[in-house]
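User: Structure tokens for both sequences below?

Assistant:
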Amino acid sequence: MEDLYLRIEDYLDGLLPEAERAAFEAALQHDEALAEAFQLVSEARRRLTPDTQAGAQEQALKQTFAELKGKYFEAPTPPLVARQKWKLNFWLPAVAATLGLLGFVWWWLRPPLSERLYADYRNFPEAAFTNRAENSPLGKAESAFKQKDYAAAETALQTWLQQSPDDTEARFFYGLALLEQGKSEAARQVFSALFNPPNAWTPELQWYTALSFLQENRILECKAVLQNINPGKPHFDTAQQLLKALP
């Protein structure tokens, strides 16, 4: 399992492949835990760099004074260097202890891997229903999806499906609204009912069924669905990436 800290370090050092770098940057936009961890690591690197430089500068300064002392003086090292050394000796352990504590807290509180991967891969298609009026249930559902108000989207789509139960697109987005609220089992029931007969929504149904298992940390079931996405179909490449990221 890839260590998230090393992943952040690799990103900051420019070591991630282009595809992984793009996925990482996309995750930063909506994964608050990842964004906080990224800020923590970035700040730690920024704060440690001056200390490292100061140590090198101190060593060079001490060497210079030693050479001057041998040539011109018998006096001890000037007080300025002693004061700099005292400051470094005082602050370095404090900074290291603080960063270590913050790192431990972040590691302890970070979300489980399944939650982080779900957040990375959950990109929903845009809800853009055709033949709908703004105040109709479909219009309200579309607006709710744009605002990421999935409870309101669920309610609006329930109303619409009572009068148009054969609207496959509406039923698919109804399943997505359930999924995003953590109603994984209910979402799978909606997706399962749409599988037969196979239709244009089948690749999407496979992908989001896999994500519903991932949301519940049911890794084996998630992998089984991902492995059934055929080459050349939508989400195949992304499914292969997710399979590699799973434990």
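Moving on to the next sequence.
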Amino acid sequence: MSETVEKIEIACLVNGEWRSARVYPLARLLDVIRGEMRLTGTKEGCGEGECGACALLMNGAIVNSCLVPAAEADGAEIHTIEGVASGDQLSAVQSAFLECGGAQCGICTPGMVIAAAALLARHPHPGDAEIREGLAGNLCRCTGYQKIFTSVVRACESGREKSPGNR
């Protein structure tokens, strides 16, 4: 006997705007964000929760959206890379990534920016060890990490970073 899984309606606050979608309960949040909600800034790297490319904030916590079932996002507050800037004004982290060459191929960049912005919202002036720990869930194959690290330090120096949800 086979069961037919029905789609469900989910609604979540995405980058300050309520959005809804009809999805299969176990669909990946990553696919819902990119496909149903057309927010394609969040990238898929490994699809296994190891690289951090698909990182976003869900109820204030960094999650790998490739591992989150869509049903868990119902009623959640979500911040994607599209919500980091304030209109046309880039955040301190985004500006620093551009200035310091912290972004190269672009696959890991959205997750790195989300992780760095979340880190600086918690610790506006982190030490080297805190920066390394804050970015530990994100992998990059292009930059060798020094440019990313330098980008976070530069963002700290600007002193204007806020969490993506507090713009």
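User: Anything stand out in the second?

Assistant: The beta strands are 8-14, 17-23, 55-58, 61-64, 77-79.
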